[in-house]
Amino acid sequence: MGTNAFVPSDFQPPTSLGTESFRLAPLGPQHNESDHAAWTSSIAHIRSTPGYPDGRWPPAEGMSLEENLADLTRHAADFEARKGFTYTVLDPSSGEVIGCVYLYPSASPEHDVEVQSWVRVDRAELDEPLADAVAAWLESEWPWERPDRHGR
């Protein structure tokens, strides 16, 4: 891996992770309405989730669907450019967005990837199973060696 590369040039980022309780897929504009509904219904819960210490996200005042679409478009572009990888967490039976997972370069020299995840407040019981599944996935499928999982 080059000094500025987030992943090796020949690495193929996984496009899914599935369990009985959820499945991950790359986040994109097609998830806009369901994603917006998911996080706006759970702002306080997400802000209390490990990994969201600065209180900037999600915005307490929310954002419009258009602003959310721009955010999802940015995440999809980061995925395509291999600068960061954001996955939507979907209910396996309904296909509804129930959370997100973010994998971005860490600003800390002690870590090579920052890992954040959240689920809707009505799916709070999945917070730890999601974090644990992502940790195992990172270990088995991804090239990083020093993830910052925010104490998870």
UniProtKB/TrEMBL annotation:
Gene Ontology molecular-function annotations: transferase activity
InterPro entries: Acyl_CoA_acyltransferase
Keyword tags: Transferase
Sequence segments annotated as region (Disordered): 1-20
Name under which the protein is recorded: N-acetyltransferase
Organism: Nocardioides ganghwensis
Origin organism lineage: Bacteria, Bacillati, Actinomycetota, Actinomycetes, Propionibacteriales
